[in-house]
Design brief:
This protein has about 500 residues and is of the alpha+beta class. The chain contains 16 helices and 18 strands. It has three domains: about 20-45 and about 50-55 and about 170-260 and about 480-500, Periplasmic binding protein-like II (D-Maltodextrin-Binding Protein, domain 2, 3-Layer(aba) Sandwich), CATH 3.40.190; about 65-165, Dipeptide-binding Protein, domain 1 (Alpha-Beta Complex); about 265-475, Dipeptide-binding Protein, Domain 3 (Dipeptide-binding Protein, domain 3, Roll). Keywords: Signal, Transport.
Length: about 500
């Protein structure tokens, strides 16, 4: 299979390289960045979109924060923490931490945040907590329903603390329109679906994130990569990511642009409706799911569209995550003839058509659809915004879809396979044994965890509930005067960036 590069796109980018870029960022200490997706509601608990996670990391703070140098979790909004017992963690909060509206952070805000997210169905479920208890104004205890080994990861990555009174008044929609947090930046403008402007918060406490150097951040949603690249070259943008491999070398020819790369936990896979939640579908037949696994030339697509640093995977998890037992997976080599034979055995000798949903990485999706077409499967692409596919997915309307998943930066299999096969609204298999094995993995005994996950991975891959594709290697391109360091969790820290002006 040959992946054809977009010649028109490359000509447009080549023309942009001839332009003389303006350097607006360093001059007014602002940073303009763009991406192809943006959550319709930027309240952290109302989406699972990576861009929203990046925004949240600048607007809100959590009790803990991962030290990028050591990998350890250290107090952030908290000044200390301790395990009271296997299911209780006590946090002592910093005093004097201010929300953007001037209110002071107290234990009431932590308790209210936990109570809200554990009692309301949200796209970002806080299943790992049972509740919170106030000890005094600056001491709070978080409770888990049982032993949960990666609890510190989840608290650090998935529990930004909201102002109790404000959130009670405005709710998720109000928090999206006018976010209030304790983070290094406060939102000064929000044009839904288009643009967010943030200013450095003058009363920021610092903590593990430190004081931001850049005064203004402007995020824009720009759907087409070519437009992003042209704006980067002309000075309209200072930073972009997900740069396709074929564009890396061209951008690198400009002295005004730096191109960098970083490995990530993100994986790509195809979801399939094995249960028939979306209606009667060929996806309910194991042989069809196996055929689809054999039909896709994953290595050719990876090499052409992902580039160095990524790898083909056979597991429903990132190999870098704890519990992702790679050797347990049943593998499906690229074999179009075997795919056609399996389709014939399933009663589809001439193939079939079905609706295929996608929301990002369109060139990648089109390459996948090309592989499917070669064995007779006509995927009718329904390309929508991330919020639309998330809603349809939760409602059980997707027969087949493309999914990019960063595990919310959780370096544990509970953040990947543990999310997609837990029996929740996003589970299109609801395999009872898989769900039992996930429960068995909730133990402090790592040997028992690995044993449970090994069996779980074997079942998921034997039943071909997903088509694992590959890991993401993330390419960045940005103004050469910007000091920026990629991190594996796919969450750029602009509050740690600065302009080099000397």
């Amino acid at each position: 299979m040959k992946i054809r590069l977009n010649r028109i796109s490359m000509l447009a980018l080549g023309a942009a390289l001839l332009a003389t870029p303006a350097v607006a960022g360093p001059e007014d200490n602002s940073l303009n960045w763009a991406s192809d997706s943006m959550p319709s509601n930027i309240d952290f608990y109302q989406h699972t979109i990576r861009e929203g996670i990046v925004l949240a990391n600048h607007i809100w703070d959590g009790l803990l924060y991962r030290n990028d140098e050591t990998g350890e979790f250290e107090p952030h909004l908290a000044e200390s923490f301790r395990f009271v017992d296997d299911t209780t963690i006590e946090f002592v909060l910093r005093k004097g931490v201010k929300f953007h509206n001037g209110e002071e952070l107290t234990a009431d805000d932590v308790v209210a945040t936990v109570e809200y997210v554990t009692s309301n169905a949200t796209p970002q479920p806080i299943f790992f907590l049972e509740g919170a208890e106030k000890v005094d104004d600056y001491t709070v205890r978080l409770k888990t329903a049982g032993v949960f080994p990666p609890i510190l990861e989840y608290i650090a990555n998935l529990l930004p603390i909201y102002p109790a009174q404000y959130y009670a008044e405005v709710g998720p929609e109000g928090m999206s329109r006018a976010p209030i947090g304790t983070g290094p930046y406060r939102v000064t403008e929000h044009v839904a679906g288009e643009r967010i402007t943030m200013e450095a918060f003058p009363d920021y406490f610092g903590g593990m994130k430190g004081q931001p150097s850049i005064e203004t951040l402007v995020f824009r949603r720009i759907g087409e990569f070519n437009t992003q690249a042209i704006e980067l070259m002309s000075g309209g943008l200072d930073w972009i990511w997900r740069v396709p491999p074929d564009a890396v070398d061209r951008l690198a020819t400009s002295d005004a642009i730096k191109v960098d790369a970083g490995e990530t936990l993100r994986i790509a896979f195809l979801g399939m409706d094995a249960l028939g939640r979306s209606g009667d579908s060929p996806m309910q037949d194991l042989k069809v799911r196996q055929a689809i696994n054999h039909a896709i030339d994953r290595e050719a697509i990876r090499e052409a569209l992902m580039g160095p640093g990524s790898q083909v995977i056979n597991t429903p998890c990132s190999p870098a995550q704890f519990g992702c037992v790679v050797d347990a997976a049943v593998t499906y080599d690229y074999d179009p003839e075997k795919a056609r034979a399996l389709l014939a055995e399933a009663g589809y000798p001439d193939g079939f058509s079905l609706e295929f949903w996608g929301y990002r990485d369109r060139p990648l999706i089109e390459a996948v659809l090309g592989s499917l077409a070669e064995v007779g499967i006509n995927g009718r692409l329904n390309f929508v915004q991330a919020s639309a596919i998330a809603t349809a997915r939760d409602e059980g309307k997707l027969p087949m879809w493309f999914q990019a998943w960063g595990s919310n930066s959780i370096r544990d299999i509970s953040g990947s396979a543990g999310y997609w096969f837990s029996g929740s609204a996003v589970d299109y298999a609801k395999d009872e044994r898989v769900i039992e094995l996930l429960e068995e993995g909730n133990t402090s005994d790592n040997e028992q965890r690995l044993k449970a996950y090994e069996e779980m991975i074997k079942i998921i891959t034997e039943q071909a509930y997903q088509v694992p594709l590959f890991t993401y290697a993330l390419n960045y391109a940005y103004n050469a005067k910007l000091e920026f360091t990629p991190v594996p969790d796919e969450t750029p820290r602009f509050f740690q960036s600065r302009w080099i002006t000397e």
